[in-house]
Amino acid sequence: MEDYEYIVGRFLRPDVPLKVLTKLRELGIIPTSMIDVSDGLSSELLHICRQSDCGVVIYQDKIPVTTDVANVSAEFEMEPLIPALNGGEDYEMLFTVPLSDHDKVAGIEGVSIIGNITEHKGTAILMTNEGNGIALQAQGWQAFYR
Q: N or C: which end of the chain has fewer CB within 10 A?
């Protein structure tokens, strides 16, 4: 398992992104929504859309994929985007902020801006590098409640 230390470690010993949360507080940025990505990015985006009566568009080239994830995905002949969208348990935070805070958030180390909120209630769209829009589905962990 030595070759998979990073990936297994993220699953078994998730770290709360305290530096990011501290920086948000220092800059006076109050997220309009926030959720941990424990059920997978797609699932959590849909949670935010449902709870906030909004939609979201995310962009394939903006989704961070570590070298370790890319390498293991290649080993298993899997598109790296699949675990990026549907994996979880690594305790990353997904949050939204007002557009007026975009530039401040963009300067925070460890934050990746992956998309934007839309008025299309309950929809989550992935824009591929080719310009195709794909509706995201919750494929991560789903609890028994709805």
A: C
